[in-house]
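tokens incoming
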């Protein structure tokens, strides 16, 4: 079973995107 969940996020320099990235990382996503 794959434990990493890859996600590609674009336009992640804003305030809201920074919080979304933090949540993704804390929940086990691999963010690129």
């Amino acid at each position: 079973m794959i434990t990493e969940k890859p996600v590609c996020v674009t336009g992640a320099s804003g305030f809201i995107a920074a919080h979304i990235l933090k949540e993704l990382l804390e929940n086990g996503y691999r963010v690129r």
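note: The chain has a mean pLDDT of 82.
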